[in-house]
Design goal:
Length: about 475
RNA sequence: GCGACAGUAGUUUAGUGGUAUGAUACGUCCCUGCCACGGACGUGACCCGGGUUCAAAUCCCGGCUGUCGCACCA
């Protein structure tokens, strides 16, 4: 584990200082498990969502998106099993201290296997309840996950989009869980936003992934259930090796685990801060055949970013049973109606992704004397700072001209106050990748300097070329040293 | 949710039963000729409620929020 890593608390303080994240409603003391996001954070989060959508939906032919509602027909949560657990309470034996869960109606009657009495600790159900319409009693719930809306809308989407198996349905949206004890800043919150895909496959092809080639040479740190049993460390290997050795059992799991890892790494996360870990038999959900988590090396330990479960046809079958609707789709090849299997459901919290990119971007540059947030330009909240070297009208005029032109395309920061060094430092701290400075030579040669955040190196470029060069730098078509 | 500890400007910090020190940040101006220079002025805080007291940010009680440990995370 990295020793010099910022603690999660220090990250929370940094985010507060930079106006990124505040406790929600802080003037009233905040509310545990809820956060508000400030100006630069909303830019970063929007960028994360945009890049996620581009990678998982826009650039693919096999995945389409929906946006389900947060409050929906409560029967959905009955079918999914979420409501049933609403009547569960969490209890602890007064005698042997062993925890258990029992139904509310059993309070006072049920006893522990050691014959001890139970002490009620609290409700186990984590759904937020509300009323629809003004009448009390019309109970509805704030969705505790986004997945069920995809299952409920599955057939409509499949038919309207003329999708053929295998295909996926993606969604980005908020979900709510009344966690007993929110902890670790944005890691566990009561309101959170998820980016999720349910990927559907023909039951006959659950081990046939047409995209497998893309990931065969991709290397990952792998911690199988077997290795955990033997208390061994993760092993780094390619997906091909993992499949050949039957460590990862299905092609789809290998494909999605590697693909999700690649998404993070492509956006600047450090590859070795990730590993994949297989659920042990004990922690496997009743509906899942096999589950692998993509984990990240947080300062408070290796923690789950995405759980990628093979949920089989469990959810669709549940909705077929409860809604009494036929949710099967017609398969041309076999001329039969089938209920597809969900072999993988990459499901990632925006807040957790935000933390990953922040931790991997955060650099305390002792030489410079300030923090340098090395965010990928695509994620950076501000793409460039535009500065007149000093506050003189002739320089301001040129700088404002550049700013007004470029801000049609990019989020920029114009700043004329303080020393140039201070403005560079401020830009470094919120991750602005490039700074453009207008100096007295600009009056004569129609050029400006452009400064690179990561190296502090500068290059002189024509104002006329600025837009094109900035675009190429942000899109990584060229490197700064190529200018 | 239970237990321990804590809560002073955005951040950080001094301090006391008589409303508060400094740093940093931020703003305006001066200075500026490429990496948080310097100067002047300014903005800005005792978590909330109740009690004790002539007087509470300070003592006591409760709450909220946070950190750590336990539990929980279907």
């Amino acid at each position: 584990m990295a020793d010099n890593k910022l603690s999660i608390e220090e990250m929370a303080i940094f985010c507060k200082k930079k106006g990124l994240v505040y406790p929600s409603g802080e003037i009233y003391g905040g509310l545990s498990g809820f956060f508000d996001f400030g100006p630069n954070c909303v830019e970063i989060r929007n960028n994360i969502k945009k890049e996620w959508w581009r990678f998982h939906v826009q650039e693919r032919e096999d995945i389409v998106g929906i946006d389900g509602s947060i409050i929906t027909n409560p029967k959905i949560w009955q079918a999914s099993g979420h409501v049933a657990s609403f009547t569960d309470v969490y209890v602890k034996c007064r005698k042997c201290k062993k925890p258990n869960k029992i139904d509310k109606s059993e309070i006072g009657k049920a006893r522990c296997e050691c014959s001890g009495e139970y002490e009620v600790i609290g409700d186990l159900n984590l759904m937020f309840k509300t009323n629809v319409g003004p009448v009390e009693g019309s109970t509805a719930y704030l969705r505790p996950e986004t997945a069920q809306l995809i299952f409920a809308d599955f057939k409509l989407v499949a038919e309207n989009s003329r999708l053929k198996l295998p295909f996926g349905i993606a969604q980005i949206g908020k979900a709510f869980r009344n966690e007993i004890s929110p902890r670790d800043f944005l890691f566990r919150t009561r309101e959170f936003e998820m980016m999720e895909i349910e990927y559907f496959v023909h039951p006959k092809n659950i081990n046939k992934c047409p995209f497998l080639k893309q990931v065969l040479n991709h290397k990952m740190n792998i911690l199988s259930a077997e290795l955990q049993k033997k208390h061994k460390k993760p092993v780094k290997m390619t997906m091909k090796q993992a499949l050949d050795k039957k460590i990862i059992k299905t092609e789809w799991h290998a494909y999605w685990l590697a693909t999700e890892h690649k998404w993070f790494v492509n956006l600047g996360a450090k590859p070795d801060n990730f590993r994949i870990r297989q659920h042990t038999k004990q922690e496997l959900s009743h509906y899942a055949l096999d589950t692998w988590d993509l984990e990240y090396n947080f300062p408070f330990g290796w923690k789950e970013l995405e759980g990628i479960a093979n949920r089989t046809d469990f959810d669709l079958q549940q909705h077929i049973k409860h809604s009494k609707k036929d949710l099967s789709i017609f398969d041309q090849e076999t001329n039969k109606k089938i209920v597809p299997h969900v072999v993988a459901e990459p499901s990632l919290g925006v807040g957790r992704a935000f933390l990953v990119f922040m931790f991997d971007a955060y650099n305390d540059d002792k030489k410079r004397g300030n923090i340098v947030l090395k965010l990928d330009p695509k994620l950076a909240p501000v793409k460039a700072g535009i500065f007149p070297l000093i506050s003189k009208p002739e320089l301001i005029k040129i700088a404002r001209g550049i700013y007004n032109e470029l801000k049609k395309t990019y989020n920029l920061n114009y700043d004329k106050s303080g020393s140039i060094g201070r403005r560079y430092a401020r830009s470094d701290e919120i991750g602005t990748p490039f700074c453009i400075t207008v100096d007295f030579d600009s009056l004569k040669d129609k050029s400006v300097t452009i400064r690179d955040r990561d190296t502090t190196k500068q290059a002189r470029i024509k104002i006329a070329d600025l837009k094109d060069i900035l675009r190429k730098l942000i899109d990584k078509e060229i490197r700064f040293s190529d200018i």
